[in-house]
Amino acid sequence: MFRFLPFLALFVSFASFAENNEAHTRAASTSTPANITPLSDGAALNQAGRQRMLSERMVKAYIQINSEIDSMKAEKQLVHAQQLFAAQLRNLKHYAPTPLIQDNLGTVEVRWAKLQAALSAEQPADTIELIAIGEELVAACHQVVLDIEQYANTDSAVLVNVSGRQRMLSQRMAKYYFAHASGQRQQKVIDGFYRALGEFEKGLNTLLIAPQNSEEIHFALSGVEAQLNFSKAGFNRIKSGQYATHVISRTTESMLKRMNEITGMYERLHDSGELNSSFLLDDHRQMVAAL
After folding, report:
1. pLDDT tens digits, residue range 63-73?
2. What end-to-end distance do the CA atoms of the chain give, in Å?
3. In the 8-state DSSP scheme, what is residue 36?
4. At residue 209, what are phi and psi to the nearest 5 degrees?
5. Are the C-beta atoms of 76 and 24 separated by less than 8 Å?
6. 16: burial class by Cβ within 10 Å (0-12, 13-18, 19+)?
7. pLDDT per position as a tens digit, 134-161
8. Among residues 127, 166, 168, 216, which one has the fewest Cβ atoms lying within 10 Å of its Cβ?
9. CA 195 to CA 291: how far, in whole Å?
10. Is 101 within 8 Å of 141 (Cβ atoms)?
11. How far apart are CA 65 and CA 62, in angstroms?
């Protein structure tokens, strides 16, 4: 199974090189290269936030492949996450409006290369070490989110951040759950799982009471709440070793998909200027400032 992983990384690296090389030859004739999507502040917040999720998702998928938990789906998730991370990083580097954001995207690149090396190594990566490398990348991506939020300088940016952070937490919960199921029974794995679960619940409650919510957003958030309540039965069996890995795989994927759609709704409201209110702010700014 692991012979497949270096091939995936090589394929992604080659595709990225070819795409970049092709874009370079066309750069003289256009102000925006063909492989770049120009970003508004709201879209930049959304994509920078999605980078956090993809960082967790790559590690989660690798653990699933190693543990043979929905491994065929996980292989596809890993390739797609690598490709999307690379594409969004290009977009964000093109968008970067300040030297600080440019510098911190440089840090993201360095940590991204480190994770790629671990994922593509011939020998399977140690799970705990891989988690640590992944979370270094998450932290670097999160700093870029905070930088863009500060640059945008609107209260509405916080809602985009909180909502986007929920995507990352859905993958972090799944990552720790699958790590524990694969035999990583260290206390820090349990602690990491329950911390992510608690932060997901807190973030969801924050979004549910936001007065800026449209009827569509509130309905979508209620669906996530129902999904979370359904998942708790499986989550709470982790300590006893009664794993429901396939159920958790499906439900966390559903939570991710729903939160991705909701983040897009908040992004559109942010860019339309309809999300300007003083709701949220000091307590929840502190919440999203931390990982």
Report:
1. 999 999 999 99
2. 32
3. -
4. -100, 5
5. no
6. middle
7. 999 999 999 999 999 899 887 678 888 9
8. 216
9. 10
10. no
11. 5
